[in-house]
Predict the structure.
Amino acid sequence: MGVRMPHRNLLQAAWLCCLLAVQARSCPDTCKKCSSPAKDQCEECRAGWTLHNNSCLDIDECGTELGVCPPNSYCFNTEGSFECRDCNPACVGCMGSGPARCRKCASGYTLTGSKCLDVDECSDRVLACHGLDEICANTEGSFRCDCAQGFIRKDGVCVTKQQSSVQEKGLFEDIQDDEVEVLQHMLFGVVLCALATMAAKGDLVYTSVFMGGVAAMAGYWLSDKGDRVLNSFLKGR
């Protein structure tokens, strides 16, 4: 065992030296081939980079024919490559981000100073909404026509909102005039009953009032009007 240990230690040391040598000769990320790991010792660069004084510099593809982007987008340079980003909604074609880099203003926008800004169609002299019951609401780059309060849109036009056909009625809302009159006399009859109770106790004043009330009620119900109203009430009219 004592003889084998030095050989094992030597083998591990040899592997360690090899790993350190490989790491020492590894190139920077931008280099494809180099003479040393230093950034200024590159011999060949990776794609998206160019060799200058033994260093790899990023290529700005947006300044070359490589940075070709679809319409209504612009080129944005990145490390070793580029991206195509969408123009601002206010633009038709652009040279960069924001409404100040537009080549042309989109519909619903107008050039104000150096920027393409939203047009407020609702403040224009010409009415944007032609319906008398419509209200103009400005949106970004456009507008919409909403129905005024109490109206709803139907078949493209604003019409009056229909009220609910079923409405709650009060206790006496649908009662007829003749029925009201009968109810009044029924109430008068209740009062007469109370007076009759008092008259039964021998009180002369209540007895006189009770007799007068009975005479008045008898005269009314014996009349033609009393008969007609009573019949109407009994028939549920």
